[in-house]
Amino acid sequence: MKELPVEVRQWMDEAPEPPSDALELFRATIEHGPDEAFASLYSVIVSRAHRRQLGTFFTPAAEVKLMLDLWMEAEQSPPHTVVDVGAGVGVFTAEAAKRWPKAHVVAVDINPVTLGLLAVRLFSEHAPDKSSDLQDRVTLVRRDYTEWLSSEDAPTPGGRLILGNPPYTRAQLMSVEERQRLHELTDGVCGSRASLSTLITALTFQHLAPSDGLSLLLPAQWLESQYARDLRGAIWNASRRAVELRLVESEDLFGGAQVDAVALVIGTQQPAIQAFRVARWRDAEPRALARQDENPASWRRPFDNDSGTTAERATVALSDLADVKRGVATGANRTFILHGDAAEILPESARKRVITRLVEFGDQLSEEGVDGASSRAAGWLLTITPSQVASSHELRTLIDAAEEQHIHERVLCASRRDWYDLTAEVRKPDVLVGAMTQDRFRLVENLIGATHTNNLYGFTWHQDVSVTTRRRVLEWLRSDDGQAALTSVARRQGAGLLKLEPGALRAVRIPLSVAEESTHR
Asked: Best exposed site among 31, 171, 335, 404 by fewest CB in 10 Å?
């Protein structure tokens, strides 16, 4: 067998010998469906919790073939070298080796288990993908791709296709040190909340030689997230490289995993401006965007055929009528959000009504409705100043108890001059807005002047917007047309979930026929 990375060889040597009948059964299975067989075996070996940490999702073979087709349809030459990013059990590696028999294929993965399964798949006596020269053309590398790419061990730039399905690990599942390292490594082109796949995309794009290209399958959040804005801009402005985006909804690709994905194909550098095209996964005719125009704020909206059809001259943005703000981020909700006796013993000046969920309320907040709500939907927000703490034994005791638990050392708390003083961050919006939904976005009129936590948004009308216009705009936003406008700017997440961001909410277009009283003053 071809020389393997040390850790892979060690894992294989230390494994117990499987029963012969189980081996025969597995050999028969992989002859009919090697991709599914090895992916299933990996899911048995590695726990769900570890797979989630690694961000591992296996791509069906048909979709891998489509991604290779997209590369060739873009009139690209066959690559001299193919690098499979996060190679996993080798779906991309096997297909690339078959598609381009003269190419050198490098499978890079940090996980010795997946590389071990890939070695079995490619090099064993009974491997379904095996060809006579495969061991000479495929190299397995057990390294962190983000370190390996710029090392002396990586293939020389030029004629390379960087291919694959990078790990979808979210920012919060990476260590602070790792995020900082990757932020610096990518020259800050990605925000601090960027997922690992986005950071890998940025790093790969920055390392492309003129005759290199990439074809990566990425989580669709990247299309519209704030943390990838500068990266999208860099790709848009690389106008001599053809770009194609193919969007696939979660139920169509990863089976039980609820993940929307997009294929990003970036071609080699050409003498003239190249096309930027978007399409849903298997659409026959992609739609071209004019690269002479400004880079779209969201790369998700162009996939909707009816996006942008409303003439902007006949509308105004919600931001022209109201200020949109996210709720207060306490940094320690269990300390700051109180219920029952814990709230009642405090003076009224030390607490304020806070809304944490909208599902239990109708179109308007009332004192009676909030008093009857569960602790999941409403509570009291601790709103105190240093002078109040100094003059109150109860408050000093509360603060001392929190500091014994090191609450004051948490990131958001530590950033305040007085860690417990939220008074400058508390807002009383006129309308509360639910940020996420699978159906309709909730808009609740805040008649009692409550504040809200940062999982909700709120908007406060500009003073020159009349009461009549406020009512009409709110009614329109709750209507089917208004909900369609909100949906059009929302991000699509797994399981059909829609998420608004504050910037998207500000940009929602309101028809002049609804808002004209205020805008023609």
From this structure: 404
